[in-house]
Amino acid sequence: GPLRLDVVTIFPDYLRVLDLSLIGRAHADGLLDLHVHDLRDWTHDRHRTVDDTPIGGGAGMVMKPDVWGSALDDVLAAPLPAAPASAEVAEPTKVASLPAPRRVLVIPTPSGELFTQRTAENLAGADQLVFACGRYEGIDARVAEHYASSGVEVHELSIGDYVLNGGEAAVLVMIEAIARLRPGVLGNPESIVEESHTGAGLLEYPVYTRPVAWRGLDLAATEPVLLSGDHARIDRHRRDQAVARTAVRRPDLMARLDPARLDAGDRAA
Ligand code: 6GU
């Protein structure tokens, strides 16, 4: 069935861009079921307090575990969307129990494990993803601990080695990376296999379109192979360029390439 996405945040308006482009279309098409919640809806005091000073002292504020617990208990119990009815699969006699849905709690934090294409591929297989966006100095650490020890799959994830003021921008990044891997969300599934960070683990080769000569940069002079019509030579040439580009821009990736996925031509390049 469709993937249910829940985002809990004190800035629900920040997530409104999800209604646009790829994600909004997928939601409208019934491929994703997106819900954005205001954390303050689970507060009980007049001031709708979501944070407090750190125990042990220090700068900034910490988000309260009781408010997060109320919010996440509700959202993790929400009904999941049913798979669209299919005449082919309809089996009126079958009453056997379905497997429990896979509900995942994602806590974006600069101190989390690194979110990579592999993480996106893994999370794209869930039935529900709940994103708990922290602000200030983060969410009381017992929240992650509590849900993990209650049997919920919890991932504390960072999108890279820099600091953002809150998890909202990171959640936009993660949702876009995950949603486009779901069947039917991306227009052309072929563009998933050829792109960077999948397949051989190389960056993508440079791409060109018409005009062949532009501002003194003439592909007939610099990239004659691409104009040759010889598809075997074109594939080899592009692969060589991908290897060269990866070596220059991402020596860290180059060092970790799987030798089994490199050919003789790659090693020569
Ligand atoms: Cl997930 N959150 C915040 N606040 N900062 C980050 C991050 C996440 N990933 C990298 N920096």
From TrEMBL:
Compartment(s) of residence: Cytoplasm
A GO term, aspect molecular function: acyltransferase activity, transferring groups other than amino-acyl groups
Residues reported to bind S-adenosyl-L-methionine: 134, 159-164
GO biological process: tRNA N1-guanine methylation
GO cellular component, one term: cytosol
Top EC group: transferase
Catalytic reactions of this protein: guanosine(37) in tRNA + S-adenosyl-L-methionine = N(1)-methylguanosine(37) in tRNA + S-adenosyl-L-homocysteine + H(+)
EC number: 2.1.1.228
Top-level lineage group: Bacteria
Transmembrane segments: none
Keyword line: Acyltransferase, Cytoplasm, Methyltransferase, S-adenosyl-L-methionine, Transferase, tRNA processing
Function: Specifically methylates guanosine-37 in various tRNAs.
Assigned protein family: Belongs to the RNA methyltransferase TrmD family.
Assembly: Homodimer.
Protein name as catalogued: tRNA (guanine-N(1)-)-methyltransferase
First and last residues shown, out of full length: 28 to 296 of 525
